[in-house]
Design a protein that fits this description.
By secondary structure, the chain is mainly alpha-helical. The protein is globular and about 30 Å long. 47% of the residues lie in helices and 0% in strands. It has 4 helices and no strands. It comes from Anaerobacillus alkalilacustris.
């Protein structure tokens, strides 16, 4: 199973000064709290979230995969 580097996602969002609320809106989540649960690993990002995340975080999807052991829902 592929793993997502959630630390990278959180750090990159902060580097770009994107709020939790802004990410929630752009990914179609109800609110910042819901998005935060994805970023913390309480919920798993789905494969169709990855292109949106990459676009908003101005990076490649490959940047999301690393050492943090969190699965992806398919």
């Amino acid at each position: 199973m592929k793993t997502l580097n959630l630390d990278f996602i959180k750090q990159r969002r902060k580097e770009l000064n994107i709020s939790l609320q802004d990410m929630a809106i752009k990914l179609g989540f109800k609110n910042a709290s819901t998005y935060m649960k994805y970023e913390r690993g309480e919920y798993s990002f789905k494969a169709d979230h990855l292109p949106l995340l990459a676009f908003e975080l101005r990076c490649n999807i490959e940047n999301f995969f690393g050492n943090n052991v969190v699965g992806i829902a398919t």
